[in-house]
Amino acid sequence: MITRDLQPITEVAAQLGLNRTDIIGYGTYKAKIPLDVVYQKPRRAKLVLVTASNAPPAGEGQPTRSVGLSRALTRMGVQTTAVLREPSMGPTFGMKGGATGGGASRVEPSTEINLHFTGDFHAITAAHNLLAALIDNELFHGSRLQVNPKHVLWKRVLDVNDRALRHVIIGLGGSGQGTVRETGFDITAASEVMAVLTLAHDLTDLRRRLGRMVVASHGREMVTVQDVGAQDALTAILEDAMMPNLVQTREHSPVIIHGGPFANIAHGCNSIVATEAGLRFSDIVITEAGFGADLGAEKFLDIKAPEAQLIPDMAVVVVTLRALRYHGGQVLKEVNQPNLAALRAGMANLSKHLENLRRFGLPVIVAINKFPTDAQDEIDWLLRELSQQNVAASAADVYGQGGAGGESLARLVMQTLNNTSSHYAPLYHSSDSLERKIEKIVTEIYGGSGVDYAPAAMKTLSRLHDWGEENLKVCIAKTQYSLSDNPKLLGRPQGFRVTIRDIDIARGAGYIVPLAGEMIRMPGLPKEPAAYRVQIDEAGAVSGIE
After folding, report:
1. How many angstroms separate the Cα of 212 from the Cα of each of 205, 206, 224, 230?
2. Dihedral (CA of 434, 264, 282, 16) sign
3. Domain covering 120-238 assigned CATH 3.30.1510.10 in the classification
C-alpha cells in the first residue's frame, strides 16, 4: 500500500473525537491511545460480534468481513469502529499469511501491522522470557524458590512457528550454564502474558494479574510470579504495550487493533481496553473472535464478556460456500466447484453454530462471504434455505468492493439492532466445578457425548482443587476445523467424546486451558511457508505478505 493513499493518523483520530494530544504517534500512520484517554468518556456504542462456521484450511475471512462491515456502516452515516486483534508473525510467515483483512477491506499500513507494528508482541515475548530467565536464575543460585526443576510450569515463547522448539533441554554445556532440565517453547500468542494483557482493565489490574500467574508447584503449594518478585519488572516492560493501537482501513475509517491471542490455543479476542476504546468513541463497534463460533465466540461470551461486563447486542456468523461444501464432504481440492448436494450436507455445521449463539441469548444473522467464483444460483439457494429456517442473511463482496459491497449486510445489521434485543448470558456459572464447565462446553457447544481425561489432566485438576481454584473459567484448546477434537470429523458429528490430555494453568488470565486431542501450543511451518513469498525491493518496499 502506497502511504500517500493513507490519511495521517491525527485525521483518523479526529473521527473518534480525539485531538493530537490524545494520542501517541508511532510515525505518521499509527498511534497508541493512552489508557486515561480510553476511560475519559462513558460507553455508548452497540457491540456486534463477528464469528464464523468451522472453516476449511484457507479460512473464512472474518477480519475482511469485519473491516468491510465497519466501512459499509460508515458509508451509511453511522460512526463505526472495527476493533480487531493484532497479527502474529508466526502464521504470517507460516500457512495463512497476513491477518489485516484483504482486498478492498484491509487495515493499513498492512505490512507494518503484520510485522513489528508498535512492538506489542515483542514486549510480550520479552516479558514472558524475562520471567523464564528469572526462574532459571533462581534454580541456578538455589536462593529462594526451593523448587524441583521438574515442577517448573513456565516455558519460553517465540513469535515464530517452530516445531523444533516444542520440547527442548536447557542448561547444557557444563558448569555455570544453568540447571539442566526439560522445557519447551509456545508461540507468543499462546503466552499467558498475552492473555493477561488482553484481559487487564488497566496497569494496576495488569500488575495484579501478572503476580497471580503460576510458574511452578512446590509440594501441594503453587509458586507465583509474586513469589518470584517479578511482577513490577514485567509490568514495566508491558506499560506501552497496554495501550491500544489506532490505524485505518483503506477507506480511512478508524480501526483499533490490540492483542493477539489465537482462538484455537487461547481465548481469541482483542483486548478489553481496545473494546472499551471503541465503545466509548463510536456508535457501533464491530469486533471479531477467531475461528468458528465453537472457539472464539464461545470464549468471547464465556471469558471476555463476563470479565469486561460486556453485553454484545448481536452476532454475525460469516460463512462461505466452500466452507459448507467442505463440511458437506466435498474434497478440499474441489471445494470451489459448485456442488449443491455438498452444500445441503454442510448446512448442519452452520446450523449448530447458529443454535449455539442463540443459546447465549444473542440475535444472529448470517453473512455470506462472496467470492468471484461463487455460482449465483448457489448463493440464492443458501439465502432461501436460511430464510426457511427464519435466519436473516445477506451476501456481500467486501473483498472486491470494500464498504460498497457490504451495504445490504450493513442494512440488515442496523435492522437487527433496531428491532431485536440481546438476552446474553454465559454458558456456565463461576460456581460450577471445573469438570462441569468443561463438560458443558463439550456437550452443549461442541455437541459431544462426554469428556475423557488423561492421567496428566487428572493430576492438574486435583492440584487445582487443592489450591481452591474452582472459580477459574475454561479456555479449551482444540482444532478449529471441527466441532470435535478431531479435525477429520466434519459437518455436525454426533456421539463423539473429547479427550483432555493435559491442562495448562492460566491463573493470571483467570482460566485454565484444557488441551483437547492433539492440539499443541507451538505451530509448525507447512512444506511451503508463506515466508517464501515475501520479497523486498531495493527501495525497501515489501511485498508478498497478504
Report:
1. 11, 10, 6, 11
2. positive
3. yes
Q: Please state the length of the chain.
A: 546
Q: What angle do CA 270, 186, 473 make, to 5 degrees?
A: 50
Full DSSP string of 75-101: HTT--EEEEEPPPPHHHHSSSS---SE
| Contact between 416 and 48 (Cβ < 8 Å) | no
Given the DSSP bridges, would you call strands 364-369 and 314-319 parallel, antiparallel or unpaired?
parallel
Which CATH code for domain 3-118+252-419? 3.40.50.300
- Non-local CB neighbours of 273 within 8 Å, separated by 6+ positions: 35, 38, 200, 201, 202, 242, 243, 244, 258
CB 131 within 8 A of CB 230: yes
> Amino acid identity of 413?
V
What percent of the chain is predicted at pLDDT more than 70?
99
Cβ neighbors of 168 (< 8 A, separation 6 or more) are 182, 183, 184, 185
What would the mean pLDDT of 202-209 be, rounded to a whole number? Answer: 98
Three-state DSSP at 330 gives coil
Q: Per residue in 304-313, is it b (16+ CB within 10 Å) or e — as a string? A: bbebbebebb
On the question of pLDDT at 2 being above 80, the answer is no
| Alpha-helical runs (H) found in 406-532 | 407-419, 434-440, 455-467
Q: Does domain 435-516 have CATH number 3.10.410.10?
A: yes
Report field, pTM of the whole predicted structure over 0.90: yes
Q: What is the DSSP letter of 163?
A: G
Give the C-alpha separation, 275 to 280, whole Å.
9
pLDDT for the residue 4: 58
Domain boundaries, the chain: 3-118+252-419, 120-238, 435-516
Those residues with Cβ within 8 angstroms of residue 141's Cβ, 6 or more apart along the chain or in another chain: none
What cell numbers appear for 87 in the block?
A: 497479527
> 504 is written with which cell numbers?
495448562
Q: Are 135 and 216 in contact (CB under 8 A)?
A: yes
Phi, psi (degrees; rounded to nearest 5) at 78: -100, 125
